[in-house]
Amino acid sequence: MQYFIRRADTKDIDDLSNLFVDFIGKDSDKDKMEEQLRRINENSNYYVAVAEAGSRVIGTAMGIICYDLVGDSGTFDQKGFKKKIQ
Fold first, then answer.
1. At the topology level of CATH, where does 3-85 sit?
2. Global pTM?
3. Per-domain residue ranges for the chain?
4. CA nearest to 37, candidates 56, 27, 50, 24
């Protein structure tokens, strides 16, 4: 079986909701989840990925470009990490 990692899209809401039931033990508000995912996908500092097997989402992860608290206090993006994950 092949696995693919890609950006989460609103078409994934049902599968993501099912995953989060496993993670947190309760149902998600799918309308709010869709609204939040749209907001996240419009912000280039966030990346929500899904792992897909066949046509089923089997995992998810979120990446966030954040400010470094040590060193030169720049963002990790300035250090080239964003380019490595895209």
1. Aminopeptidase (3.40.630)
2. 0.73
3. 3-85
4. 50
